[in-house]
Amino acid sequence: MNGFNRIFARTSLHQTARDQRVMIRQQPAMFKRDPNRSYPTETESRTIIRFQDCDPLQHLNNAKYFDYYFNAREDQVAKLYDFSPGQLFSELKTSWVVYQHQIAYVRPAQVSEWIRIMSRLIYVNEDTTVTEYFMTDDAKTHLKNVLWVTSKYISVATGKRIPHDDVVTGYLQATLVPGIDFMNLNFNDRIREIKQQISPRNVNR
User: Same domain for 146 and 60?
Assistant: First the structure.
């Protein structure tokens, strides 16, 4: 290795190390529940339906709803709660994996349409969560889609289900929607409830 290459390699290594230290400093701390703070239990995002995500009828492709939902929630959870699922992996060596989902396509989302995406945690036990997502038009007058996602908490090392860590339980309890009897909740009845919430006049449409 000539002198120039040695200097370049040494500079690159120093730059890489410096970048890594900056990234570590910039990573937010793991969620810590503040007993004096009231946390929102619903997230909301506004986005536009992209042409590349639509089918030949110019409707959002059925499979793409999941991308829109998951991306919206990831962004809002980081913003509202200072919580990142990536930290579970890096700090606790744990993760949530999708166990089951239920989805209803009520009205199509169309290309170039602005829509609203809401999400909320509606059930928690020692190793399971159920997150509810729903999509409306921009004015929030018509329901387009509803999704329930059941996730299991696992150890990355073993791949087996484990109880939620204390810090995770704190986050879940702080953001859980109160008063929902999930074990006695029917998915189709829930769709009707959401329709009633956003537009009582359109509940039967």
Answer: yes
d(CA 192, CA 169) in angstroms, rounded, equals 30
Task: Categorise residue 31: left if φ over 0, alpha if ψ from -120 to 50, beta otherwise.
Answer: beta
Structural domain including 23 reads: 1-30
Same domain, 96 and 168: yes
Could you list the pLDDT tens digit for every one of the 205 residues in the chain? 555 455 434 444 445 444 444 333 344 556 777 878 889 999 999 999 999 999 999 999 999 999 999 999 999 998 998 888 788 888 999 999 999 999 999 999 999 999 999 999 999 999 999 999 999 999 999 999 999 999 999 999 999 999 999 999 999 999 999 999 999 999 999 999 999 999 765 555 5
Q: Is residue 12 domain-shared with residue 78, that is, in the same domain?
A: no
